[in-house]
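Colleagues,

Please find the record for the two-part complex below.
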Amino acid sequence: MKLDSGNTAWMLAATALVLLMTPGLAFFYGGMVRSKNVLAMLMQNFVCMGIVSVLWVIDLFSLAFGPDKMHGLIGDPATHLGLKTGGTLFVAGVPTAVIAAFQITFAIITPALITGAVADRLRFGPFVLFVTAWSILVYAPIAHWVWGGGWLAQFHSVKDATSGAITKLGVEDFAGGTVVHINAGIAGLALTLVLGRRIGWPKERMRPHNVPYVMLGAGLLWFGWLGFNAGSELAADTTAGYALVNSVVATAAAMLAWLIVEKIRDGHATSLGAASGLVAGLVAITPACGFVTPVGAIWIGVIAGVICALAVAIKFKFGFDDSLDVVAVHLIGGIVGALSIGFFGQDAVNSLGRDGLFYGGGLGQLGRQCVGVGAVLVFTFVMTFIIAKVIDMVWGLRVSRDVELEGLDINLHAESAYDSGGPASHTSIPEANMAGVSSEKVSS
Amino acid sequence: MRLITAIVKPFKLDDVKTALETFGVTGMTVSEANGYGRQRGHTEVYRGAEYEVDLVPKVRVEVLVDDDDVEDVIDVIVKSAQTGKIGDGKVWSVPVDNVVRVRTGERGTSAL
């Protein structure tokens, strides 16, 4: 294998695209919370970029993508320790350094997605600890199971022939339906059960404070997601092209489907509905994008748009405060997408994939997809619940009542997002805080 | 002297301002306000969940006038702010003991 500059160039660009998704997600979520908590929401997302990037290079990449250890449960922590193998070629003529950087961005956005379920009530320090523990104990193993050649492994990871492949289950997850979305969705559910409801929920109105932010964030997510999905081919080829067009058309169809549900159910097609629908479509097409035709992608988008729009009602029915609908959009959308491969998959699109039920492939792949989904649901729920419970008991994961009522921004970060233009914005800075600067200098 | 306070629909502010200027009122204070009257608020829907928004955005216009002008100025405001639909707002006036122009120290009606 020699370096392939075409593939490598695409993976470099795709990495940058995917990295932008997390700031996009921060605004998508930030616009939906109340104005007193928007900075805390942004910070929870940005700090994931901080923590996970460092952990990933130190050893998480090795745990996720190193050679199999413990019968497919985890990767060898020694192989890529400190990314010492960065100069070697990993797959399809792309250096390990590039693949590791691309995978950093996935590892970042997965815990960032969880924060939407517990908006308005997380303490910052304990959350940092949570992300650290969760990345090591939950994300790295599951990434290994599916992509790193672990026990659920899809073909993808065995292209480089580091593992035997025959004994693996062959769960297909092109870009992260199980690893990213079901994983984050079920973790969000576990976390919201540990933390409990926000004060006043569901009686008090907690409407989004800035819907344009939500739309902006959704637009950035869609843009970056093209790198997420088409980049997951790890090469610039026809399958990547299918993944790209499917990620456009499924998303478009899901947005329309969500809006139609709203129009029929509530009387109006809303902007928040458009943003939510397109994200639901992106989630659902993520695992399937490299295995289905563009028409199959439209069907997946429509199904996901309708089901996710209706799934928002689940939290009210069961009384758990999944604040920004991570369960409805990411968990349910991820399950729709992961299972859809078992129906809509076509090996004409991807020679490494298998035909689904609708194309004469029988129930085999659908069964494998169900095992993959079930494994992630159980493992992540149990592990997340334990991690959150332990941190909560030892340190306290939830802010105090006073902090929650007054707002997280001013209490956790000593900042407020908006200058209201009121009297406070015209008040001069007290001299005591301007160490070393005389009042003459300030006034001149 | 009297203080006239008018709560009007935000999009009628320009009409009110122009009408008052035409009448000869030389100054006013305008601020954003939220409230409700008999019309109550409105309903917003986010991801299918309905929210009753009972405080509706309004604009508060305050004008200081001489006693003789009170009724005329109130008429000007009411005419220019009226749409005939619910939620048009209210206007009221209260007596004012004294007014001082900060720059010159003038007091009473000469400070208006």
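The interface with chain B takes residues 205, 207-208, 262, 265-268, 270, 272-273, 276, 309, 312-313, 316, 325 of chain A (CB under 8 Å).

Comments are welcome before we finalize the supplementary table.
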